[in-house]
Amino acid sequence: MSGTPAVPAALQLVDVRKRxxxxxxxxxxxLAIGTGERHAIIGPNGAGKSTLFNLISGRFHADSGEILxxxxxxxxxxxxxxxxxxxxxxxxxxxxxxxxxxFENLRCAVLWSLGYRYSFWHNxxxxxxxxxxxxxxxxxxxxxxxxxxxxxxxxxxxxxxxEIGITIAGGAQVILLDEPTAGMSRSETSRAVAxxxxxxxxxxxxxxxxxMSVVFGLADRISVVVYGEVIASGRPEEIRADPxxxxxxxxxxxxxx
Amino acid sequence: MTVxxxxxxxxxxxxxxxxxxxxxxxxIAAPQVFDSGFARALLSQMAIMIIFALSYNMLLxxxxxxxxxxxxxxxxxxxxxIHALALIGKGSLVFPVSLLPLIGGAAxxxxxxxxxxxxxxxxxxxxxxxxxxxxxxxFAASLMFPGFFGGEAGISGNRTAGGRFxxxxxxxxxxxxxxxxxxxxxxxxxxxAMYALTHTPLGRIANAVRDNPExxxxxxxxxxxxxxxxxxxxxxxxxxxxxxSAVNLESVGSGAVHAAVSGGVLLAAFIGGVxxxxxxxxxxxxxxxxxxxxxxxxxxxxxxxxVFFVALVMFAPGxxxxxxxxxLRVARLGKFRRLRDPYVGVLGTGGLLAAGIALLIxxxxxxxxGIGTGSSVKVFGFPFDTTRGESWVFGSAxxxxxxxxxxxxxxxxxxxxxxxxIEIEDWRRDNPEQDQ
Lengths: 257, 436
Prior knowledge:
The complex is a heterodimer. Chain A is an alpha/beta fold. Chain A has a domain at 1-85 and 215-257: P-loop containing nucleotide triphosphate hydrolases (Rossmann fold, 3-Layer(aba) Sandwich). Chain A has 9 helices and 10 strands. Chain B folds into 2 domains: 14-300, ABC transporter involved in vitamin B12 uptake, BtuC; 333-434, no CATH class. Helix content of chain B is 72%, strand content 3%. In chain B, strand 3 (376-379) and strand 4 form a beta hairpin. In chain B, helix 1 runs antiparallel to helix 7 (176-197), helix 4 packs antiparallel against helix 10 and helix 7 (176-197) runs antiparallel to helix 10 (223-249). The N and C termini of chain B lie close together (5 Å). At the A-B interface, helix 2 and helix 3 of A face helix 8, helix 9 and helix 10 of B.
């Protein structure tokens, strides 16, 4: 299970375990996600998908096992360190800066990667590179017309788009999206899928998603997590054909493509 | 109501120059217009309080840190500055008196580094409680170490000790007007510096940490580090205000690090409003008016300040600055004329109500505290005899009548205000881009 490939995977998990109290939520997950791959993690509610994301992104720390980003251990690093190493994530529950304008949300999100760190000797409004990046992001996530609105006043779908904008702003090579289309209407979902396809060009994408049309439409590979374990991992057609998956998961939702 | 005005699309930021120019003129002209010794002392206090309240708002409004111990930084800054002043007086230190606030600032910064490291690990209630604890600790230390803190008497110095400023004859910071202009210069520079800070990467990220510290960590920022740096910088400016206070009063006692000072700056910031940069400036002016001007006339000033604060928080939770901006928006949309009569009604009856309440309070205070000074008390220039029933009947009747009238006017005002608010909401929905 733990054999390291010749080229290190963009993201690799080796026998990761996490318990809360007496309950083991993640029970030995091993996973290798290749550079440039679009990887979906699916599974029933409470399977531990979001916990897995929280472990990878440093929100929680694993009890045992190893998590590697481009071959470098990030298992016990803090979220901001992991982010600086090139991994960014979005959240299942919208997680933006509600009192800042949409533009300011994006500009904040590009500052670290442009090297401005904790500077109090630069005038923000003179930072042409930060402004240009933020404007370009506004365009890409389709919120140009909402530029100066307080982010907390955006509609739900707009906030989800902003959430993705903040996530990709720093130019991270590995992007984790936690249920990016949850709670969206059909038309909003298809717009979100187009956006995700566009922003993940040339990057490694890992996403947790419930909508099977989104999963099978976007993912190069799929991992199925049930009760804190990966029961199957492979290309979409392999997953669809896997009897264990059918039994544990795909049998139930009618949405399966 | 966006917190951050987007002004940068205006080529020269003309409006900003006008505002800073106007502020400078106010600072220069104020002591010429109000030229009594008392008024000038009051203006100096206001200017010092402006720096202190703005530095406090770097934590509260900008970083979301509710501190109950900000007096630690201003107070210790004041102590270091007064010790330096005393040393200058003895001739054992050569340092310009005009730059003493820098010593206060350096001390504030240093203690910001030390205490900030302890307090900023957490935000929210934990931060507030630790800041309270550190405030108590430093106050206790001020009583334990009389060598540094000067015990009951405090430490004093002489602000003319440095001799002539820049070799100019007669310029020694002895006269009130000279020390006022020294303070005003520092205040103006600090205002610009603190305003500029809100337009830097750190300043903006502090807002992000205030809004959502967890998300800030996932865009590469260490939220604790951001809070810590803001704490150091706030400590610096608080220390500058303390240093100015030391130069101004030529004496610093343990009261300078007392919780009452920390509470005062919290009140000042809230009165002015923490959502906008200029809020604490208004708050500082109003607070000093209560604490230093009203206190000259009545021992009940704490009570008036408390009532004013409660009323403000109830009716205008965003403070005076929000109130001002809301009214400006109403005016900009050409709806202010509809509020004119309701305002006259509310302010007129409210003024009478306040006068009636003040009369009763002053007579009560006189009965309990004014023993031996006769039975008559002057309120608003009129003598009232506290032993005669008529005074009390008059006061009570005034309160009752103006109270009822005020309540009627308040409802009328609220109806009109709410109607306008709904119209503005509709307008905002249709014109989201123009909203500020």
